[in-house]
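Quick one - first record:
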Amino acid sequence: MISTRLPAPGRGPRPERPRATGGDPPHTPLRPMWCCRADGQPWPCAQARLLLRAEYDENPVGLSIYLAGLMYEAMRDLYRLNPYDGPEPAALFDRFLAWGPRRRPPSEQSS
């Protein structure tokens, strides 16, 4: 029998990156609001983006996968907090993934 119901996905990756140096708080998300622990900006904040790009410099696909998992977690948390006025999916995509590694247009991928 074919079913259209999919199993619920797991919890996804733990947002442990990026780590701060010294005694400053790390630029990690404060859940379930998904704001930065260090500066209170929506996570990933500018500093977290810089640290993530530096950490994943040689692995842009890994960065995209990591951020996609965190975007899923943020969606779940933010919609649970405010199911009627949660963020738009496009806004979450821009916040988590659009700034990440650049992808080639489909016309360049086949060459």
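second record:
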Amino acid sequence: MGVKLEVFRMTLYLTFPVAMFWISNQANWFEDYVVQRKRELWPPEKEGQRQELEEFKERIRKQREEKLLRAARQGS
């Protein structure tokens, strides 16, 4: 019983990773499942969102620069 059990376990240990690799590399499955799921989780950006984000980053950058300028003037 011991040898048969070990052969079964070794077959299972080798078959499972190979099967998972084969399944995950199927182009149809990848397109249907993974890409669709990614689009559900992270929908494409709208035009206005990108512009608002850039404006926000610019405001924050200007605030930091002004703060650094004030600190530099006070330290001089």
